[in-house]
Specification:
Radius of gyration: 14 Å
CATH architecture: Roll
Order of helices and strands: HHEEHEEEE
Number of helices: 3
Number of domains: 1
Length: about 120
């Protein structure tokens, strides 16, 4: 059984990969970070549900000019479930596009942490 520190480091790595994959348009890898029934509420339109929708979203965002940054992560773990709340900044072509809070529910599946439910709450403009 991993230690609390090892679990937190694995979750931080999950979000680093999330940023890398979405920013470079790597749809399959991005979708693989979520559970099969993973849900992502971007704050715009209906939530995305399932890996096919998540893959399509990532590919539609494209790659190359966006950067997602997550900081001040507060990670709470209870067995094979966890929550993470963080601050997020998204830039596009060097300009700040979004400042938000993220809330995630994670599950350990076959020994790996995956995102079960993710939501963005943008700061008021």
């Amino acid at each position: 059984m991993p230690t609390l520190s090892e679990d937190r480091e694995a979750i931080r790595d999950l979000f680093a990969r999330y940023a890398l994959y979405v920013d470079s348009g790597r749809g399959d890898e991005f979708a693989g970070l979520f559970t099969e029934d993973g849900r992502f509420d971007t704050g715009v339109g209906d939530p995305l549900v399932g890996r096919d929708a998540l893959r399509s979203f990532c590919v539609s965002v494209g790659g190359g000019s966006m950067h997602h940054m997550f900081m001040d992560q507060v990670i709470d773990i209870d067995g094979d479930t966890a929550t993470c709340e963080a601050s997020s900044i998204v830039t596009n072509k060097g300009q700040i596009m979004l400042v938000a809070r993220t809330h995630d529910v994670l599950r350990r599946v076959d020994g790996q942490w995956q995102i079960a439910d993710r939501s963005y709450t943008a700061d008021p403009s």
